[in-house]
Fold this sequence. Notes:
- This protein has about 170 residues and is an alpha+beta fold.
- About 25% of the residues lie in helices and about 35% in strands.
- It has helices at about 60-75, 95-105, 155-170, and strands at about 1-10, 25-40, 45-50, 85-95, 110-120, 140-155.
Amino acid sequence: MILYAILDKTRSPPTHDGTTPPPSSAEFAGTIGYLHGSPTNFSIEIGFIIVFPPFQRTHVTTNAVGLLLHYALDLPTASLPGLGLRRVQWQTSEQNGVSIRVAERMGFKREALLRWDRVFPGGQGKVGNGEEMREGDPRPGTIGRHSVMFGICWDDWENGWREQVARLMD
């Protein structure tokens, strides 16, 4: 797994005294990462996306995801060399409408629903799939999650999504 800090250099939230710092100062806006990379299969997943509230519903998520898509899918021979992977995937809870909309806006295609994919002991602040656990479940007190699997592949990227993501990032 590779985890990146997301820095917003375009604006900063107001300081405690109500003034706005100069735009040259960068603000820590969240985290994003690559995980489950497979050199054998030329694939990787984008995940662990956390964007702090002052930066939500701004350009921050679009640009962070767009940068990771460019690096993953652009060929090593491109003017800004990439990894030349064949596939990038994205998983999220079927209950996470915000994450689903981001994935779709960035060109990912919905590919599968993985039922009862994750177990969260004691809930850990997570929203489950809303379904009742079975009687006698060996992990009582846990909740389950259905995950939606999305993917964007090199042919999607080279047939228009590279340009679409660039437009979204402008």
